[in-house]
């Protein structure tokens, strides 16, 4: 299967038919991916840098919050988004009681949604504490998230940015959620490839951003992984050749070229190319992590 076919198949993976799955009580950390174990993220364990990956909304369970079983749809998303990072870091990916695809479509905002997100974050924070205490061994770490996973990591960065763990942060790839300069006190947008301890944030659109778009806007941060600190168009490396990207006036990453103009905006135009945020820029992101890791280790 070509890389483009894999990219397009992501739409099917993330919008599959919902099937009932039994829920489970909270339990110790369950790792969807960990170094040394064959799995969807590759299992490499010989890099000097770790990646801590939190996957997007993908669970097909019927409950509001998923259980922590490493179900096939989670593995499919991790293989698509996280496995390429196995070339540059040891990938750790915990399961967590995320809001399911069903609840994302049916649960209204307000206290019920906030409570469900808080439950999800409880698992991510516990997994981070487990990782830091028992598995990190002093290695630098890159945080990688998308969509709901980025919501979790935004909270995590806020919790750790004034702790000693901040000194181990190579960078945070906070993709597919609106991140603002006011979200953090000490962690700022990456402005050059060799800068570390910073974050990358963007959401991709291939058409003009609608007025009611879910992402971007006046307060959003957009950092082009192919041209940090610039709003000029730059070649974006990924499965589609001849693609360029730029952070536009609406603070979203506008992509064009290749077949990007034909890619569907799912579930509607307000989401842009949300499901493909990481995949479209996959090689550029891996290159960036490689450069940032080398700079961090060089210091």
From TrEMBL:
As given in the record, the signal peptide range reads 1-24
InterPro entries of this UniProt entry?
AB_hydrolase_fold, DUF3089
Highest taxon of the source?
A: Bacteria
List membrane-spanning regions. none
Q: Which UniProt keywords apply?
A: Signal
Protein name (database record)? DUF3089 domain-containing protein
């Amino acid at each position: 299967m070509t890389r483009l076919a894999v990219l397009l198949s992501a739409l099917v993976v993330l919008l599959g038919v919902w099937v009932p799955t039994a829920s489970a009580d909270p339990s110790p950390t369950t790792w969807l991916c960990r170094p040394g174990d064959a799995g969807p993220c590759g299992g490499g364990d010989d890099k000097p840098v770790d990646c801590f990956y939190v996957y997007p909304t993908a669970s097909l369970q019927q409950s509001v919050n998923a259980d922590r079983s490493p179900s096939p749809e989670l593995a499919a998303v991790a293989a698509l988004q996280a496995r390429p990072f196995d070339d540059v870091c040891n990938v750790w990916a915990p399961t967590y009681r995320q809001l399911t695809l069903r609840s994302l479509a049916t649960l209204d905002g307000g206290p019920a949604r906030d409570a469900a997100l808080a439950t999800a974050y409880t698992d991510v924070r516990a997994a981070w504490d487990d990782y830091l205490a028992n598995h990190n061994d002093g290695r630098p770490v890159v945080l990688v998230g998308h969509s709901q996973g980025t919501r979790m990591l935004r909270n995590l960065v806020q919790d750790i940015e004034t702790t000693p763990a901040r000194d181990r942060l190579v960078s945070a790839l906070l993709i597919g959620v609106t991140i603002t300069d006011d979200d953090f006190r000490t962690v700022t947008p990456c402005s050059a490839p060799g800068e570390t301890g910073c974050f990358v944030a963007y959401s991709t659109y291939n058409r003009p951003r609608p007025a009611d778009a879910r992402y971007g806007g006046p307060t959003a941060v957009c950092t082009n992984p192919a041209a940090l600190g610039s709003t000029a168009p730059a070649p974006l490396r990924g499965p589609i050749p001849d693609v360029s990207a730029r952070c536009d006036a609406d603070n979203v990453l506008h992509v064009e070229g290749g077949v990007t103009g034909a890619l569907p905006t799912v579930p509607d135009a307000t989401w842009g190319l949300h499901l493909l945020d990481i995949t479209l820029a996959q090689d550029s992101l891996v290159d960036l992590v490689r450069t940032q890791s080398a700079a961090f280790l060089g210091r």
